[in-house]
Design a protein that fits this description.
Mean pLDDT: 75
Largest sheet: 13 strands, mixed
Strand content: 25-35%
CATH topology of the largest domain: Jelly Rolls
Low-confidence stretches: 29-41, 49-129
Helix content: 25-40%
CATH architecture of the largest domain: Sandwich
Shape: elongated
Number of domains: 3
Structural class: alpha+beta
Distance between the termini: 83 Å
Order of helices and strands: HHHHHEEEEEEEEEEEEEEHEEHEE
Length: 353
């Protein structure tokens, strides 16, 4: 419903001319839009609304021997300033809410108006554009879940704010984040999903990832759990293109505003993405590394010739990835390092017995 429709219905509502279906329509409109759309009322319209609020307050709060007569023979004063003080204060308090949250008050106004005071005609202005953004701030001490209109889900961390489009505009889905949140994005190849922070923008088609970008934080982090995302620098140095890189599962992009540096690395504790058996009885070491790659979706690079004759007896269970690698290296006398989101495994050649 646009602003013009609202004013027309309000005028008919004031006149007691709405049908039950139209009354239901007003209530349904309020339930859909809540208090997200404001209407700019003229002084005359505010006067009419004020009188309606006054009627509602007097009917619902005053006793039978009220200081104001609401019988059909009574007429309202010409101006609300002449009303008794406690009514003016009550009506003023209601107007603070009622004028800015018109949908709330309209849905609750009485259908019949007191006789002897016909409402003034309403002037229909040019319809205002509906608000296209929703802002949600988590001021609690716990994570909270936010369902986006496109089917995506967001777990918003404490002290974080999410701003997102209520309706799709163009071919992109856009959200702005301050703080930290985990995103589980609904797959839509035709409409990429973009998450903007103060320093970086993350572009996805359908995946799950976590963004951490609190105000004043030394570095911005984007950690990917499933799928893939592209993380790009929002502001580049003079005469240079913004840095950009693709981040895969169990990797994270880390941006340092001080150095304007965007780098890719493994997350501190990679998650298991494809369970594997980690019991090896006299099996090639290359087979162990392949199982770890599949289990955690992490690339492990090694010298195949050096490991050609290397076999091992090893039983691994629920240890984190890096603990498993530590145990393998201790048994084999090898080492590893983490470079650009990958693992480089170093081992001396094994002698044939």
């Amino acid at each position: 419903m646009n602003q013009s429709d609202f004013r027309t219905l309000l005028q008919r509502y004031q006149q007691g001319a709405c049908t039950p279906a139209e009354i239901q329509r007003i209530e349904a409109w309020y339930r859909c839009l809540g208090a997200e759309q404001e209407f700019n009322l003229s002084p005359a319209e505010k006067e009419a609304l004020m009188a309606t609020v006054w009627q509602r307050i007097n009917r619902q709060t005053a006793p039978a021997s009220s200081f104001l007569d609401t019988s059909p023979k009574a007429a309202l004063p010409d101006g609300w300033a002449s009303w008794p003080a406690r009514v003016r204060w009550a009506a003023a308090a209601a107007l603070v809410i009622g004028v800015s949250l018109v949908g709330l008050q309209v849905a609750r106004l009485p259908v019949q108006w007191a006789a002897g005071w016909p409402p003034k005609p309403l002037v229909t202005p040019k319809p205002a554009a509906p608000t296209s953004w929703q802002v949600f701030t988590n001021s609690s001490a716990y994570e909270t879940h936010v369902a986006l209109p496109d089917g995506s889900a967001v777990t918003l961390a404490p002290a974080s704010t999410l701003k997102y489009q209520r309706q799709l505009r163009g071919n992109r889905r856009i959200a702005y984040l301050t703080g930290a949140a985990f995103f589980d994005v609904f797959h839509d190849k035709q409409h990429p999903f973009l998450v903007f922070t103060d320093k970086v923008v993350t572009t996805v088609l359908g995946t799950s990832f976590r963004v951490q970008a609190y105000a004043g934080q030394a570095e911005v982090q984007v950690q990917v759990r499933t799928g893939a995302v592209r993380v790009s620098q929002r502001v580049a140095a003079a005469n240079t293109a913004p840095a950009s890189l693709v981040v895969l599962p169990n990797q994270q992009a880390v941006y340092s505003p001080a150095r304007r540096q965007l780098r890719r690395e493994l997350v501190p504790t990679p998650a298991l993405v494809a369970p594997q058996s980690f019991v090896f009885n006299d099996r090639p070491v290359a087979e162990v590394l392949t199982a770890l790659e599949k289990a955690y979706g992490v690339s492990i690079m090694y010298d195949a010739r050096a490991l050609h004759n290397c076999t091992i007896n090893l039983s691994l269970r629920d240890e984190p990835l890096f603990t498993k690698l530590d145990m393998l290296c201790e048994t084999l006398g090898a080492t590893y390092e983490k470079v650009d989101g990958h693992i480089l495994f170093h081992s001396q050649p094994c002698q044939v017995e």
